[in-house]
Amino acid sequence: MHRAVILTATYLLLPVIATSAANLNRVEIEKQIVDKSFVWTNPADQRTGSILFKSGGRVELEIHNRAPTNQFTGVWWFDNKNRLCVTWQVKTPPPHKCFSITNQGSGKYLTEHGVYLRLGKNAVRDDSIRTSQPASAF
User: Fold this and answer.
1) How many domains are there within the chain?
2) Which domain holds residue 100?
3) Per-residue pLDDT tens over the stretch 60-77
4) What is the CATH number of the domain that holds 38?
5) Which of 13, 94, 104, 135 could in theory staple to 108 by disulfide, Cβ–Cβ 3.0 to 4.6 A?
6) Phi and psi dihedrals of 40, rounded to 5?
7) Contacts from 17-26 at CB under 8 Å and sequence distance 24+?
């Protein structure tokens, strides 16, 4: 009896576990990511900041734990693999990067490059000056 309950619970929870780890598709990204401010953390290099993917294809990024705060603008789009891609507007040839995003629940997301996003109130300023290079994981 006990084993049957465990097997039934496992069977019922499998779709929830699989869904939470699945990459978001274009429609899900547009609903869950676009026009919302996120605080991001990159554990690989200890950088943190905020990012806003605007409708219409613009993106704004701040790196908070560097002095002075680095701020960037760019454009975003989807590639043919349903990954979100970003090209940054910097003085050097525009670097771009594409990445999938998974929903981790409770307003938290994870990119395939290991950057954590969480819904946050640190909106990116529109009047910022863009310098240096953006976070390598974006």
Assistant:
1) 1
2) 23-119
3) 999 988 777 788 999 999
4) 2.40.128.640
5) 104
6) -120, 155
7) 20/102, 20/103, 20/104, 20/105, 21/102, 22/102, 22/103, 23/82, 23/100, 23/101, 23/102, 23/112, 24/82, 24/100, 24/101, 24/102, 24/103, 24/109, 25/82, 26/78, 26/82
